[in-house]
Amino acid sequence: KAMFEGEALGLKALGASGTTKVPAVMHYGDDGPGRSFIIMEKLDIGGRPDMHAFGRAMAEMHMAEPLDPDAKKGMFGFAVDNTIGGTPQPNPWTDDWPTFFREHRIGFQVKRAGRPELTEVWKKVVAKTDGLKTLFTD
User: What pTM did the predictor assign?
Assistant: First the structure.
């Protein structure tokens, strides 16, 4: 259920911008151990995509006023943790983007990998980029 709860809330947040069509979630839940489901609106999409229009819609969506009060305060994260496929993705509210990305996206995945050589490379990247801050500037 947690996997699809995050998906449902994420789709709702994306759709709230009103910039692009997002499928409505009708229901999600569990159907026994390891058997979760989500039921969503079917979108009639087809034909050749207009990638320029898609890019503009994505930019507008990311610039839209967020629903969540923490996001409105300029914090990064989400109301619930979610998943990337079967992999957990933590989303604690964090004051700045470089810290969120470093600790809860890439750093989290590096730790999950459990490979010392990857951890060492990651530590070097973090050190050379002031905790990733030099990669993300206004």
Answer: 0.81
Q: What tens digit of pLDDT does each residue of 66-86 get?
A: 889 999 999 999 999 988 888
Classify 87 as helix, strand or coil. Answer: strand
DSSP letter (8 states) at residue 76? B
The burial class, CB within 10 Å (0-12 / 13-18 / 19+), for 78 is buried
From first CA to last CA, the distance across the chain in angstroms is 37
Contact between 103 and 89 under an 8 Å Cβ cutoff? The reply is no
Report the amino acid identity of residue 10. G
In the predicted model, is pLDDT for residue 2 greater than 80?
A: no
CA distance 98 to 76: 10
